[in-house]
Amino acid sequence: MPLLSVDELKVTFAGRGQRETTAVSGVSFGVDEGQVVGLVGESGCGKSVTSLALMGLLPKKGVRVEGRAEFRGTDLLTLRPSALRDLRGTQLAMIFQDPLSSLNPVVPIGVQVTEILARHRGMRGQAARKEAASLLDRVGIPDPTRRLKEYPHQLSGGMRQRALIAMAVACAPRLLIADEPTTALDVTIQAQILELLKELVDQQGTALLMITHDLGVVAGLCDEVNVLYAGKVVESADRRTLFAAPAHPYAHGLLGSIPRLDAPRGEPLNPVRGSINDQIAWADGCAFAPRCDFYTLECLSGPPGLGPLDGADDQPAHHARCVNPVREPLAVATLPESPASGSDQPVGAAPPKSGQPVEAAPPKGETSE
Length: 369
What we know:
This protein is 28% helix and 19% strand. Strand 9 (224-229) and strand 10 form a beta hairpin. With 369 residues, the protein is of the alpha/beta class. It has an 8-stranded mixed beta sheet, sandwiched between helices.
């Protein structure tokens, strides 16, 4: 049994009148002991909402959370608030995206760290301050005893993020959720933070759920990767399989848009066209269809399932939510020039928005090599 098993997690926000917005629409994944699992996707795909739902940090009013999220056999979504508070900090911990807004600006760093030690480990006074200084030193903050007396605004961005990590690992949690912990940092500090997280996983056996839109972070840190789009997992695979042969057009587009050092100078970037707002309802077909260069009529035949791809039995599991997956490895992949087998719709024809009829369109022009 995985340490964390998420099954059909759905989060819906109430709007004005009868209008509702579904931010997470049936997300399922698992995290094993000592494993690093990535949740990847553009902003607005439902990554952070998924983590907040797992931690029980979403508002109680105007939000409906459905599905199951079993942590060591206990469903986090049905726990009483008091029981969930006991788990947070000891068994579960989270590193938030913006350390400046996550730390209390009018309370010294030392007080914020020792508060966790007092709540979950019963440590107070000199013993708590000594342990807090040890935690700051462990995450690489210089002169930790002096830093305990300082306020968040007196620390650099990297030090604030390290302080958050120290608070998160103070009780050696079994599962650590990191919500884009390197987004606001420069590349040098990013590398240091990622190395620190990797050391914590290796030394303590902590499982890490890494939420990010940075595929470079995924390449260097994650064991398994789940690609989210419009609130659903559209592809899941181990890191090497995903980077070598992404099957869903969205994952293929994300990886293909990364600048490459071995590309000819002056070659234009190849971003995923459109934006996250250009989507249709999953009930009508693939939500990514309006942005997809591999679109066929079959993509609007109903909600696609997350199914295994063809391959040898000894290969790691590779699943994609796509009726027309990309078959070529990324390094040599080109857009197909003919429709998928069994379809009379030219590939590259942009699908209409939900509720509009489908009309055939001429194939797109050739893309640059």
